[in-house]
Design a protein that fits this description.
By secondary structure, the protein is an alpha+beta fold. It has a single domain, classed as Alpha-Beta Plaits (2-Layer Sandwich), CATH 3.30.70. It has two helices and four strands. A four-stranded antiparallel sheet has the order 2-3-1-4, with helices on one face. Strand 2 and strand 3 form a beta hairpin. It is globular and about 40 Å long.
């Protein structure tokens, strides 16, 4: 399983984020997408980060799935028209206990 962070951006800083957006995204996932869970991290004035937990064989597949899911939500007939998808990538995390060895 991979955690992929996908940016959703809007030109207007005061754009409203639906309270049930994680549920809306989960409902837009297709059965074969491997989407297990969705979380929303709002960034007032900048948009939001969507965290998508995806079952996939490869990281690239997971990143593409998360981006595709987010494109569904920003489509003209989706719940966030006017928004756009930014980066979609797995966050890099320092291995536990090894972050000091890299200095």
């Amino acid at each position: 399983m991979y955690l992929v962070h996908t940016e959703l951006l809007h030109r207007r800083a005061d754009s409203c984020i639906p309270q049930d957006l994680a549920d809306l995204l989960q409902a837009l996932a297709h059965p074969g997408d491997g989407v297990e869970h969705v979380v929303i991290h709002p960034h007032p004035g900048h948009g939001m980060t969507v965290g998508v937990y995806v079952l996939a064989d490869r990281l690239q597949d997971a990143e593409e799935t998360a981006a595709r899911l987010c494109r569904r939500v920003v489509a003209e007939d989706g719940p966030l028209p006017g928004w756009r998808v930014g980066r979609s990538e797995a966050p890099l995390l320092a291995p536990f206990g090894l972050d000091g060895l890299m200095d």
